[in-house]
Each structure stands twice: as C-alpha cells, then as structure tokens.
Amino acid sequence: MGARCSKLSVCFFPCQIKFKSHLNDTFDTESGSKNDDLLPGFCEFSFDQLRTATSGFSSENIVSEHGEKAPNVVYKGKVEDDFFIAVKRFNRSAWPDARQFMEEARAVGQLRSERLANLIGCCCEGDERLLVAEFMPNETLSKHLFHWDAQPMKWAMRVRVALYLAQALEYCSSKGRALYHDLNAYRVLFDQDCNPRLSCFGLMKNSRDGKSYSTNLAFTPPEYLRTGRVTSESVVYSFGTLLLDLLSGKHIPPSHALDLIRGKNISMLMDSCLEGHFSNDDGTEVVRLATRCLQYEPRDRPNAKSLVVALTPLQKETEVLSHILMGIPHRDAPPKELPLSPLGEACSRLDLTAIHEILEKVGYKDDEGIANELSFQMWTNQIQETLNAKKRGDSAFRSKDYATAIDSYTKFIDGGTMISPTAFARRCLCYLMNDMSQEALGDAMQAQVINPEWPTAFYLQAAALKSLGMENDAEETLKDGTGLEARRNRD
Predict the structure, then answer these.
(1) Half-sphere exposure of 366 (CA within 13 A, CB side)
(2) Rounded distance, CA 346 to CA 354, Å?
(3) CA 109, CA 114: separation in Å to the nearest integer?
(4) What's the confidence (pLDDT) of residue 214?
(5) Which residues, 6 or more positions from 261, have their beta carbon under 8 angstroms from its beta carbon?
(6) How many CB atoms lie within 10 A of CB 36?
(7) Which of the 8 DSSP states describes residue 301?
(8) Coil, helix or strand for 431?
(9) Burial class (CB in 10 A: 0-12, 13-18, 19+), 468
(10) What is the C-alpha separation between 452 and 455, in angstroms, rounded?
(11) Average pLDDT per run of 10 along the chain, which is 491 residues long?
(12) Is 488 helix (H, G, I), strand (E, B) or coil?
C-alpha cells in the first residue's frame, strides 16, 4: 500500500521515524539528552492543520484547562498515521508580539531530550498563537500522586521521578534555558512507557497575560514575591516543593513541611502508604535535599547538576521498567498473536491439498444468509442450467478435476442468478492448482466483496498473494482473517 503524503507529513513524520529509531543509541543517561543530529527539526504548522487535528478544537479533546485568567487551553490532537500531539492554544490577548512568540518557540524547539515532552512545532497566524508538543498518554504526576486509583506510587518510582526531573533541568541549563515557569506536579507528564517527562511549555518566557506562577502563593519562591522575576534558583525552590509532594503524597506548603522537619517530626511528613518500603537513610537523604532546595536565600540552594548527583545513588529497582512500577499496562505492547485455524495454517504454507480437503469438508455452509434474490426465472430452464453447472463444478472439484471445475463454476457464476462466495472460493483454489495466481486472487477478493466478514476469503487471498511472491501482504491478510475468525468464535 502506498504511503500518503501531505504538507504536514513531509514536515513532521520523517523526523519522528528518525527520532524513535535512534532512541537507544543516542540517549545520554546522565543528562537525559540525545544526539541533536539524529532528531526531528522544529516545524511550523498551519492553523487549519491544527484545527483538523483537534477536531475543530473540540471540548472533548481538552486535556488541560486553567482558570479564566490563564491564557491557554491544551488539546489532544491526532495527525496522520494516528500520531498524537498536544496543542496549546493561547487566547487572543496573549503574545501580541508575533516575532517574540516565534523566537521563543524556535529556541525551545531546538531542545531535544528524553526527559522532556519536547516542543515539535508552533503556529502563528493572525492573532492565533499555538504550540505543538509530543503527547504524553499517561497523565500527570498530580494524578498518580494525589488522585491515584489502583495503587499509590512506589518509592522506587518516586525517586526515579525526582532524578528524571533533575536531569531534565540540568539538560535545559546546559542548553541555556535554565528558567522554568511554575514547576509543579501538573507539569510532570508520563509518556507511553510511563517514564516521567517535564512539559516543554514551562520553558517559554512569560506572555503578556500569563504569570510565572499560577499556584498558591504558599508555594511560590520568596524572591519571586519580592521581585516578580524567575531565576534558576527559583526553579530549584519549586523542585524542592515537588520533592515534598513525592515524600508526602500530598501538596504540603513548604513552610509547614519545614516546621515538621525542624521539629524532627519527619514521620508526620512521610506518606503513610510508603511505610516499610524504603530505608530510613534514603528517606532522610531526600528530606535533606528538599530542605536545601527550600532555603530562603537563593544562593544557599543547590544547582541542577548537584540535584542529579544527590539523587543518583538513591535509585532503586533500576532494572524494573517504569510502567511495571506504576502498575500500568504498556500501550505499545505487541498484540498477542492469535493461533491460525487449520485453513489459515494451510494457506500460510500454500498447502493446496490441505486447502482442498478443508473446503470440500466445509461445503456450502458459509453461504447461509447470503441474499439471493431470484425471480420467476428460477423456475425456467435458465436457472436449472445454472444449478447443473454448479453440480458439475462440485463433482469435478471433489474428484480434483480442476480444469473442468473452473469451466463449470465459471458458467455458474456468469449465469448471475445466484450469489455464492463458496463458488468463488472453490474456483480460487482451482486457479491456484493451475498456476493462475492472479485469477485466484481476483476470486478470493470477490468472495470478500460478497461476504466481508468471511475469514476463508482472507485466507485464500493470503494463499494467492504468497503464490505471487507478496509475502508481507500475505502475512497481513492472514492476520486479518485470523482476527475475523477469533471474533466470530467469540460471538
């Protein structure tokens, strides 16, 4: 089957293929970065493309929405080949300077890290300002930490989240983007493997109507309250509040948490769900690191590199994949292979003798329910001749006289008074027996037209395709037939 191309696919999809195929050998586990030369470039989307991708910015596709004062809504979108994106649409009063918006977007779009939900494009048309990022299907840290359903987040996963975020911040700092606006549990997203990633949206400088911190003032860095400016030290302070979230399983104001720590009431700070699942030394080390991040004076806080160094030795169960730690089925796990039926197995081997035996045994039972609208002519000599042709074809088929069977079934089919997918299936096999693979494929496809849910039609197509040397197509058609047969058996 031919690939479809569009302005969007030319710009975007070849990059994604490269992005995924080089993932393992370009990833730097220390910094969370990847080799920029092997990654997709930044794309400019048209507004129409993004409107189509989000079904007209449907409310059903909203994945993140803030209060009335917040200048944006985030939508889930889908582009060609079912590739999902996150589209952040600002309101019309945000980013009045188109040049500033494009410069910021392109700068953030140059970053590429496995620790980020990367920015892959933007749109700037008229008053419209939109950002396009990789879509993360497994929700936010806030959801898994504060509003979990099946199980609380394990300690090993919590310290992994902390490390991966520290690596994300270190990578951004190394690329000259140390400032992150409003780092909180809603900005931490989980990808298809359930690995945590930092949203790239927080790396954009403030728009005219936006705020660097939308959370409660109790969680805002003290220097921001004094100056209204975000610094790299402010980002570390916010990282400290995230460490408190991970420790407690709740969104505790830093001042309250620090009071508990100073009063040596650390046990009251810890999430009761974690009791007995981590060592006192590890818990104490994370508390100590959070305390350092939350120092009042910015100069007393560690930098991103120090965070990575401190968190690396605390990693537990490093060989266990994140989706297993999270207790979430892997969305990209290959589907379980369905076993082939005897006919499917015979077609996959192109065992024509076995196919003949099965078709002969099954007979015409699969023709039941196929509409045959016969008029008065069924009582005439014409219908009798048609039925006689079918009988001669069946007799020749039974005795393996395939040339005669082809001739007789052709007369029956061309008579046009009755519809029989089985007759096409039988003639298909006769064609295969006579090395007429193209004609066989045509008959198998015609049988499918008559009965679209008939597995036998797909199996015989696969046999014809295999006979024509089209192995990959034959394999896919076999899977289609197997899926139909499994569904039929369930029903």
Answers:
(1) 25
(2) 6
(3) 14
(4) 63
(5) 269, 287, 291
(6) 13
(7) S
(8) helix
(9) middle
(10) 8
(11) 32 35 36 44 90 93 67 84 87 85 94 95 93 94 90 96 98 95 93 96 73 73 88 95 95 89 84 89 94 96 97 95 89 63 89 91 81 49 77 92 93 82 93 94 91 91 92 88 82 63
(12) helix
Secondary structure class of 349 (helix, strand, coil): helix
Contact 191, 138 (CB under 8 A): yes
Q: Write the DSSP symbol of residue 300.
A: G
Is 278 in contact with 155 (CB distance < 8 Å)? yes
Phi, psi of 124 (to 5 degrees): -140, 90
DSSP-derived secondary structure for 232-259: HHHHHHHHHHHHHHHHHSS---HHHHHH
Any idea which fold 40-135 has? Phosphorylase Kinase; domain 1 (3.30.200)
Q: Does domain 138-333 have CATH number 3.40.50.2000?
A: no
DSSP bridge pairs for 134: 85
Residue with the two structure tokens 């909180």: 184
Spatial contact of 109 and 102, defined as CB atoms under 8 Å apart:
no
Placement of tokens 């806030």 in the chain: 142
Report, as residue numbers or ranges, the catalytic residues: 182
Amino acid letter for position 241: T
Tens of pLDDT along 193-209?
999 999 999 998 766 55
Q: What are the extents of the domains in the chain?
A: 40-135, 138-333, 342-489
The tokens 């899926």 sit on which residue? 483
Residue 208's pLDDT is what? 54
Residue carrying the six token digits 């560690």: 302
The interaxial angle of helices 254-262 and 232-248, nearest 10 deg, is: 70
Q: Are 50 and 7 within 8 A, CB to CB?
A: no
- Residue 370: its pLDDT value, please? 66
Centre a 10 Å sphere on the Cβ of residue 473 and count the other Cβ atoms it contains.
16
- What stretch of H or E contains 121? strand 119-125
* Rounded Cα gap, residues 93 and 71, in angstroms: 8
Asked if residues 392 and 318 have their Cβ atoms less than 8 Å apart, the reply is: no
Cβ 167 vs Cβ 308: under 8 Å = yes
What CATH code is assigned to 342-489? 1.25.40.10
CB neighbour list of residue 249: distance below 8 Å, 6 or more residues apart: 145, 146, 152, 153, 271, 273, 274
pTM to 2 decimals? 0.63
Radius of gyration of the chain (CA): 32
Give per-residue pLDDT as tens, 402-433. 999 999 999 888 877 778 889 999 999 999 99
